[in-house]
Amino acid sequence: MIAYNLESINKELPSGVKLVAVSKFHPFEAILEAYSEGQRAFGESRPQEFASKAVQLPLDIEWHFIGHLQTNKLKLVLPYAYLVESIDTEHLLDAVNAWGEKNGKTISVLLEVHIGAEETKQGLTPAEVVALLGRAVEFPFICFRGLMGMASHTDDEHAIRGDFANIKGLFDECRRLYPELKDFDQLSIGMSDDWRIALDYGCTEVRIGTAIFGNREY
User: Which domains does the chain possess?
Assistant: First the structure.
């Protein structure tokens, strides 16, 4: 099933759009099955699970951390993360930068944008994103790679398109305002239920779990 699902999704993805297989809550065997089909980018959201998988699975896996990250869990994530996609507060950004300075490592990050309707979603406001990027020099151990966002959890395609359009608009505005941020070129939007819509809004990455692995194991 995993092999078939990966093949089907990859056939639809345009060149230049990365598939991150969201493997959180799924066992090593499922990840290795996807790996055997050529999948290399995987997304995890719980620090302990992230660290356990990172040290026990193949070394050429590209690990993306996509969940809420507490500052007391940085040591479980930052040594192994190819990309931290969920920087949702300035406080977290400060802590990640400090960890990078202490450990001599530059951390690649996406700023997580809260644009959808749900009050419970994590993330920075568009104004906060613009302000932080304007102070990028204050974070010398951070490489700002782009934005991550989620559409509102709804069956209303018009609302989903509106959210994606707003995130893409902010992404384009940030690139216009800060051309000196040469690596700021990643837009991570689109999940199992809405990734095809995200393709219409210039995403460079989609994060797909259930449509690859099936329902999660809890």
Answer: 2-213 (3.20.20.10)
Residue 212: phi, psi to the nearest 5?
Answer: -100, -55
Specify the 3-state DSSP secondary structure of 105: coil
Taking the mean position of all CA atoms in its chain, how far away is CA 217? Answer: 21
Question: What residues are paired with 124 via a beta bridge?
Answer: 113
Q: Quick one: tokens of 64?
A: 């993306």
Dihedral, CA atoms, 145, 147, 150, 156, nearest 10 degrees?
Answer: -130
Task: Output the CA torsion sign for 131, 135, 138, 141.
Answer: positive
pLDDT tens, position by position, 160-204: 999 999 999 999 999 999 999 999 999 999 999 999 999 999 999
pLDDT tens digits, residue range 39-58? 999 999 999 999 999 999 99
Q: Encoding tokens for residue 6?
A: 């990966």
* Separation of alpha carbons 215 and 211, rounded Å: 8
**Which residues does 156 contact at the CB level (< 8 Å), separation at least 6?**
none
